[in-house]
Amino acid sequence: MFEKKDYDKEILNINKRSKKHTCLYSDCLGKTIYSHAISKSISIEKISENGHVKKFSPIRHGDEKIPKISDVGINEATAFNGFCHLHDGFFNDIDEREINNLRDLFLQIYRSISCVYYYEQIGDVLYPDIDIDEAVKIIVNNQITKDEIDLTQDKLYKVKGFLSDEMARANNIKNSELNKRKEEINRVRNYFLNNIHELDECKYTNRKLNEKGTELQTIKFNDFDYALFYYITDFQVPVAINTMHNLNYDGRNFLFFYIVIPYEASNIIIGVMENNLPPEYYDKIITLIDDAFKNRLSVLNFIETLVISSPDETYFKPCIINNMRKEKLDFILNDFMFLHEFLSFDKYFLEYDVSIFDELRTSIISEGINVFNESELDKIHTLPMRESIDVRKNKMMSKIMRENITIKSLKNDL
Ligand SMILES: [Zn+2]
User: How many domains does the chain have?
Assistant: First the structure.
């Protein structure tokens, strides 16, 4: 059951262009072409320079991860092995013109969540066949394990067998969580596919979306436990995002899907989330989203907050990165490395305290339509205080270790 695997090779097979995958459209057995979650011609190209955009892609150096931002060709940005040629054609409407009606919106959500669903396969590679011997060795030799539990070499030797059983058990739990999550993502994406079919069968009317720069629109469904919101800006924030946030509350996972699509002179921002959020956070999150679309500056702040909580799924126009002074870029890249500091129910959507799109921020503030807090301008030039990288790393590791099921049970049983 727990065989050794060539993880790197298998993950590469998921990430790179490959014809080995089967189409994700219901019941289709066609082989996939490599196609985009966010349209290349109508969107990604609009934020590209010389055929490229920029993306956070940390590199591994031994056990260390080093922050880095790289060029990504527009043929690769948001591309995945998701649909066959025939079913990629299903998205023609949103490849040829900007999203402007309900059907387009559902098409985009179906396509974007299918992309997230596709990348969930990486979990299948990492967890099911974990190499237990190797994992036990890592846990036992880890300094943080030794700090958390009083383990002598003697004791360690005795618990090794127990530890292996624990690892296998923890691994099975992880597996079933993963499968549950995949089923849930699949359920959500297929709900939207079904809605597209119903629209096509004229079961209800395909209406136009709100005008650019007008108001936030929320859509709820009678027969579905998720709601969606969208907003169309009347200015361009030069960034594309296609992401899922998975927040844990009391042992249960809550999924949030966000899509930010840049067009020539606007963006559409889409969110899909459960209706039944944990009661203590419900009002906070709903208020945050309502307030995010009050004016241009608040929209920009919301997008920057989305960037910091989705660093791995964000594509930048190159000049945003190229024009950033080195000190600030390093600061932001370091924040990208500590995702857990920004992504939990307690911290969710706390406004990011650094400005990413400086030029745009300056220009919005100079319009002077709204009264802004001084700090909105200060964010451009001043970097906030953070703990040292070492302290942040240690906190992250001990959080991982505290949540580690194996360590928990070792503590209880020794
Ligand atoms: Zn197909």
Answer: 1
387 within domain boundaries: yes
Least confident of 244-253, 280-289, 398-407: 398-407
CA of 186 to the centre of ligand 1 (A): 16
Q: Ligand 1 center to residue 87 CA distance, Å?
A: 5
Closest CA to 52 of 67, 70, 68, 37: 70
Tell me how far the alpha carbon of residue 114 lies from the centroid of ligand 1, in angstroms: 12
| 224 or 160, which is more confident | 224
402 found inside a domain:
no
Token pair listed for 144:
């943080």
Indicate whether 173 belongs to any domain: no
Which domain covers residue 254, as residue numbers?
A: 7-124+189-392
Q: Scanning the structure block, which residue is given the tokens 């979990």?
A: 123
Tell me if 276 sits within 8 A of 225, measured CB to CB. yes
Query: In terms of pLDDT, which residue wins out, 365 or 141?
Result: 365
| Length reported for the chain | 414
Residue 172 lies in a domain: no
Could you tell me the distance, in angstroms and rounded to a whole number, from the CA of residue 310 to the centre of ligand 1? 29
